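Supplementary Note 2. Why include the ligand at all?

Several targets in our set were suspected to adopt different conformations when bound, so apo predictions alone were not considered sufficient. For every target with a known small-molecule partner we therefore ran a joint prediction. The input for glycyl-adenosine-5'-phosphate is given below.
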Amino acid sequence: MAITRDDLMEKVTALCKRRGFIFQSSEIYGGLSGFYDYGPYGVALKRNIRELWWRHLVELRDDVVGLESTLIMHPEVWKASGHVDNFVDPLVQCLGDCKRRWRGDQVQGGRCPNCGGALSEPRLFNLMFATHVGPVADSASEVHLRPETAQGMFVDFKNVLNSTRVRIPFGIAQQGRAFRNEITPGNFVFRLREFELMEMEYFVKPDEDDRWFEYWRAERMRWYQEVLGVRPDRLRFFDHPKESLSHYSKQTTDIEYDFPFGWGELEGVADRTDFDLRTHQERSGEDLSYLDPETNERYLPWVIEPAVGADRIAIMLLLDAYDEDEVKGETRVVLRFHRNVAPVQVAVMPLSKKEELIGPAREIVTALRPHFRVEYDQTGGNIGRRYRRQDEVGTPYCVTVDFDSLQDRAVTIRERDSMEQVRVPIAELVDELTQRF
Ligand code: GAP
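The joint prediction is reproduced in token form.
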């Protein structure tokens, strides 16, 4: 039976809780809106996302280096970046019964979407979370939790330049927590108040921005399709019209995904011009220009920035992978994860809890672990049910050790999507799985 778009989000949310991908934060106290925890399989999925991003944006390239800056920075940073003045959403409140708050730009028809009541005039609401450094909570000690990681790369630009051998064009990449006091968090982990951002600032010659903008748009789209295995028909580019550009941007393209609630931003690729380096240079008084060693030209580099949230990729991958089929009159739920992102790549299971099977199964786990992400499942019970459980967490292969294995030194490999089973000698298992992967 086809899964409707309306059902899909509900089914994935339920699966995430049932199988330990994602839980509501502080659930025993009723939860906290816009905050989520990652359970055992969710952590594994998110680590894979982070590692694949880092591998392809930093480790496999000569021209990008990493950085880890602090979550709390000098207050001047957010004045220079424009976040104090511009990182605002229009907030409206229902004047009717429910008193709910909404983002003014997302409400249609001027009435409360919940109860139909009249709405207040919009007032600008800054999305940055404020806190204080030190024991005195006054305006002089006020700081903000970072709403993006990007500013760390701009503020440390000179440090990276002076301490490494980077030459323009080059990038600085960073992954880490970001905080936004969203008025309407929602759609599960699509819009959060605390999330994991992955950003890369790519510094280029001022007149070469268009070329690099095109390059990064294409490269990032390739990554989703080839590395994460996302269905190409569910991805598209959306070029922002001039009037919806951020204050720092000359041009921005979003890579959008066809979510159950409609096309939504997955990643933004922005041409930030020299806005950030210029404003930090002006405010700090530090020279942030770059001296081209070949031409002896001095200039402020322009910046192309691909930026994406790991949580948004996680929910996209879960939705993209979710499927149901009929097996022997029963509905089978399966996550058809690409091998690169699957939390578990191979599950090894002895057919029963008998000691004589546990020994060889354990040996197989030890042999496979250097090559794959392996889970050992000794829960016993019906093997079919154990396969279903692995299908639900998206494990591409199960390896079963049975009583015949003791004689023929072979095991059964069961494939997730086709459910096909083949017998393979234990001695050839690593090679066989490597080939299949
Ligand atoms: N430095 C540029 C920047 O922060 P953005 O479009 O505001 O740009 C970049 O955010 C990406 O971060 C988005 O494309 C999205 O993937 C993710 N993101 C933004 N706000 C988010 C939120 N509230 N919850 C989860 N992810 C979010």
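Residues 148, 150, 180, 182, 191-192, 195, 197, 199, 265-268, 305, 307-309, 311-312 surround glycyl-adenosine-5'-phosphate (CB under 6 Å). The chain is about 30% helix and 30% strand. Comparable summaries for the other entries are listed in the accompanying table.
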